[in-house]
Amino acid sequence: MSLLEAPGTQPAVEAADLATEALDLGYDGTRVVHALDLRLPPGRVTAIVGPNGCGKSTLLGALARVHGPQGGAVLLDGRDLATLRPRDAARRIGLLPQQADAPDGLTIRDLVRYGRHPHQGLLRQWSPEDAAAVHRALTAADLLELADRPLDTLSGGQRQRAWIAMVVAQETAVVLLDEPTSALDLGHQLEVLDLVHDLAAQGRTVVLVLHDLSTACRHADHLVAMCEGRVVAEGPPADVVTPGLVRELYGVESVVLRDPTSGTPVVCPVRRVGTR
Amino acid sequence: MTAAAARPAPPRPAAPPAPPGTWRLAHRDRSLLVDRRAATAAAVLAVLVAATVAVGLALGTASVPLNRTLPAAFGVGEARDVLLVQQLRLPRIAAGLAVGAALGVSGVLLQTLARNRLATPDTVGLNDGATAFATASVVAVSTSITPSAFALVGSATAAALALGLAGGAGRRGYRFLVVGLGVGAALGAVTQLMLARAPIDEANQAFPWSVGSLNSRSATSVTVLAVGLAVALPVAVVLGRRLRLLRLADAVVTGLGSRVARVRLAVIGTAVVTAGLAVATAGPLGLVALLAPEIARKAAGPRVVPVVGAALAGALVVLLADLLGRTVAAPLELPAGLVTAVVGGPYLLWLLLTTRTRRMP
Q1: How many domains does chain B have?
Q2: Is residue A275 part of a domain?
Q3: Nearest CB to B251; choose among A97, A109, A118
Q4: By mean pLDDT, which of A3-12, A21-30, A45-54, B40-49 is the weakest?
Q5: Against a cut of 0.80, is the pTM above it?
Q6: Quick check: B22 contacting A, CB < 8 Å?
Q7: Which of B31, B355, B358 should one mutate to test binding to chain A, selecting the residue with the greatest count of A CBs within 10 A?
Q8: What is the ipTM of this complex?
Q9: CATH number assigned to the domain comprising residue B188
Q10: Is B19 exposed, middle or buried (0-12, 13-18, 19+ CB in 10 A)?
Q11: Crossing angle (nearest 10°) for helices B307-327 and B36-58
């Protein structure tokens, strides 16, 4: 049976251990992240939360080699990420940054095919594995029927799913998504987050940067709360999220309730207290 | 019989379906994808170029019937035909082909890199640098080094100045483009200064480099250009595949394992070489590098960066401009650069006035 006859076949994903060691990040003299030691649980969904400008996106970018560390290192299975060839690293770690845009006229399938780039070469432009991976990614994102539609004719949720499908087609052990649900309505948010759950269920390590604390609690196994470039709390959402943390992160007094369906924390802001 | 020989070879997976709109050429583990629309577009452009070459060889102050042109190009037929076609017109048309192709390639590479249709070797200063140095080699410095070498050094100098002042190619090459604009203006002024101060004979000799014409090419510069193109075109085709990816955001491209900075420098390097050699041969033929990629993109569709298409379209534009220049006002000859400027100017204006804030190209 060929891979193509079984679109649901799970890709073989080896679990990857991604960690940072005394990681310093910054731009032109400004230090954004300070001496960060972090380990991302393999095969789980980790959400990074924190106020604007706390270094969440910078950290995510560093995990995907978009910017190099000013000190310390990102370790993939114990090896310094900077010593890997870019192509090899891209076969293990996939990134969807914020504000991704594509040239006009590309179809969903064209975009998803880009995800195969690290697996391709000058004389290996379309292998059976590529075809199978693109098919699986389109299936996972529920975009098979729309695959040949141009991106600019899609709704925001569909377009976001197409971008995630591109990263899925990369078939990496680590998937990094920067605010994948911002600018989406509730239904489309859930579509995307369900897809995120499926990725983790396949054994991938998923790291999300999320804006909304309650969404993060509901959908992540592991929460990393950052403030001013440091990790202030880390662990399962139910253990970590308290009114004290919300005050520390956002300067907001709040009541933390339990979600009646999932039992995860829900944050109800009361008022600003101006500690920040 | 060894165990290895006894074991049947693992079945090779069946050939995967090629993505829509492509042909897959495969041999064992190797595979190439050819975009159907881009390949068809290139074929059509090639036919148009061939037709223009044929007409260009036949027409002129003294025309040769088309059926006698082709034999004459190979030295067969009446002595008069052979002289006109093979000795006088063929070298000029060969030069036009090469110059147009080089400018087209340079243009499509820079436009895609900058995601901006206005980014061409004319606008980022490469042509101005080449022109200034080529002019200097004629009017100011007395040397036996050919204008080709000087023009190449000139366009490289312009690029190096722009890169140095901009602090690298930068994000999406924007800074490079803006600084290049300034460097180009400065070098253009240097050219004017040299022409103004030079003795009239030398200024006349250097004049072609300020308009762009196929009339005054030197045989050496055409040869150098041909050799340069033979190297640069395959490089550009490979870079074109990389550039498809670079049309996405830098962070996406890095995440997909491409070395953005390295590709960007290679692209600028190739654009410098092609533009420099073209200018050395025919001077700064205005707007060819703007028009050619535009024609190629329209024809080849959004999936690809049409390097071959732009080369062919560039050749077509230059050959048509030269043909028009030779025939419209005959026996007076208009420089091809004047024709491209007359045709391209309004187009540039239209582009500036209608460009929406959309992702380009």
Answers
A1: 1
A2: no
A3: A97
A4: A3-12
A5: yes
A6: yes
A7: B31
A8: 0.90
A9: 1.10.3470.10
A10: buried
A11: 20
